[in-house]
Design goal:
By secondary structure, this protein is an alpha/beta fold. The chain is built from 15 helices and 20 strands. Helix 5 packs antiparallel against helix 13, helix 7 crosses helix 9 and helix 8 crosses helix 9.
Length: 479
């Protein structure tokens, strides 16, 4: 994984266990039991047993790929209903680094929870224990109070599957907020090759918190020309490794180094500006004739970066950088992206295709084995290295694709079933997955609000994406 990738950065979660324990023995509407059951020792023992269940549940059910759990903070209070300041301070001591609080406990957890929400200002999450028969009413009580005050960062799960989904969503939001895009420009701020990318870059920052660094694309050639011997050796090593591990080479192996040198140059600029996402205009940079002169394209760089957890989009499409980042952080998979179109000659069968020469090794998942990759030249001059994979090997598998609207106020979410692959060894930008959707005409109609570039991953992730749209206050357009 790339040193600047956010894929393995986790949501920092502070577990909190709240327990009201009675110091005095008495019966009444708030107190059940008889004899020893009315003692502090009985309350304490019951609390410790429930706390142990909470810790066991966290260990067993929480997806640690997305979450870093801190040591559980135990808050004890009593029937005088005075919450000790020391208990609140102890629980909030890491508030600057904590992303959210996971609340559990015995009875009457809601009041203390509202204090944590008001003082900490961070999301609170509630989930019943795995042995519970009912939902967590204390969470509902606290949530109603906080939402009435305008604080909406309260999340009530019904089980640990729901809880893990919320963690994935919050982690993805965190990744976007911490994303810094190296946005290569040639002349026009909005690329001539993708005018549906955005309306205003400020819309992107306002919606996601993402920072965007404008960078003159011509500077990359200067960086290329001044690579050190060590950097050139690194490019050579990467090229040799790709050739060695290739499923097959359909281009001169010696030409791969031109593209890995460009990757090293981009990586150097990413480091210089501390960026963790990238895009560059294909058409405008091609028109400089520098690519023809140097025998390289950007395709391999984009594929390598995505495989390392760095969102990298074609055609200076900043909107697609956002789409890629959402999918990468939500699913832990390296997406493909490209032009998405209806096959009009097969409209009655609702078939479509998405093409660009930027498939990746880890499309099935960063935690999975890499796909067998063939290498094909982009140009008919046998240069411009591109990764290729025969998508027809995965016929009948489900895929999920998304695109964000130019205003960043909507997200289109669609699923399809792979039914084939165009000739994946064809040169030029023609590496296409062919798939079937429920209604291609409806897809085409909705596409008008979003543009032609769609990012996609394997599997059905539509439910997560719908919930993510809700979290980000975006309209989910589901096809």
């Amino acid at each position: 994984m790339h040193r600047r990738s956010y894929i393995n950065k986790k949501l920092v979660v502070q577990p909190v266990f709240i327990s009201l324990m009675h110091k005095h023995e008495f019966m009444g509407p708030c107190r059940y039991g008889v004899g020893h059951e009315l003692s502090y020792e009985f309350d304490y023992k019951a609390a410790m047993a429930t706390l142990e269940d909470f810790k066991n549940d966290m260990e067993k059910y929480i997806d640690r790929r997305y979450v870093e759990l801190l040591e559980t903070s135990f808050i004890e209070w009593h029937e005088d209903f005075a919450v000790p300041e020391s208990e609140i301070k102890k629980t909030l001591k890491n508030n600057d680094t904590v992303d959210c609080y996971l609340i559990s406990g015995t009875r009457l957890i809601s009041y203390v929870s509202t204090i944590l929400a008001k003082r900490g200002g961070k999301p609170l999450l509630f989930c019943p224990l795995s042995n519970s028969m009912y939902s967590r009413l204390g969470g509902i009580d606290a949530t109603a109070h906080m939402m009435a005050l305008g604080f909406n960062e309260m999340y009530n799960a019904l089980n640990f599957d729901d809880l893990n989904r919320t963690f994935r969503l919050l982690k993805t939001r965190k990744a976007l907020k911490n994303m810094k895009i190296l946005y290569g420009l040639r002349n026009n701020v909005l690329s001539f090759g993708c005018v549906s990318s955005f309306i205003s870059l400020q819309d992107i920052t306002d919606k996601f918190g993402t920072e965007i660094i404008n960078y003159n694309g011509l500077e990359f050639f200067k960086v290329l020309d001044t690579l050190t011997d060590e950097e050139n050796e690194k490019a050579k090593s990467i090229a040799e490794e790709l050739v060695k591990d290739a499923n097959a080479m359909h281009m001169p192996a010696e030409n791969v180094i031109n593209d890995t040198r460009f990757y090293v140059a981009v990586d150097k600029v990413l480091e210089q500006y501390e960026c963790n996402a990238f895009t560059l205009p294909c058409f405008e940079m091609c028109a400089t004739m520098e690519l023809n002169k140097r025998h390289l394209t950007f395709c391999l760089t984009n594929s390598l970066l995505k495989d390392e957890g760095i969102p990298a989009a074609c055609a200076a499409d900043v909107g697609s950088v956002i789409s890629l980042a959402i999918l990468m952080n939500l699913t832990r998979k390296s997406p493909h992206m490209g032009n998405c179109m209806v096959r009009v000659k097969d409209l009655e069968n609702n078939t479509m295709r998405t093409l660009h020469d930027v498939c990746t090794k880890y499309m099935k998942g960063y935690d999975e084995e890499p796909l067998p990759i063939d290498y094909v030249s982009f140009t008919k001059g046998n240069w411009g290295t591109t990764m290729r994979y025969d998508f027809s090997k995965d016929n009948n598998e489900t895929i999920t694709m998304i695109n964000v609207s130019p205003r960043m106020d909507k997200i289109m979410i669609a699923t399809g079933t792979i039914i084939g692959c165009d000739d994946f060894l064809t040169q030029e930008c023609k590496h296409a997955v062919v798939f079937k959707v429920s209604d291609a005409r409806k897809f085409h109609e909705k596409e008008e609000m979003f543009g032609h570039h769609y990012s996609w991953v394997y599997g059905d992730h539509s439910k997560d994406l719908i919930e993510f749209a809700k979290l980000m206050k975006m309209e989910a357009v589901v096809v």
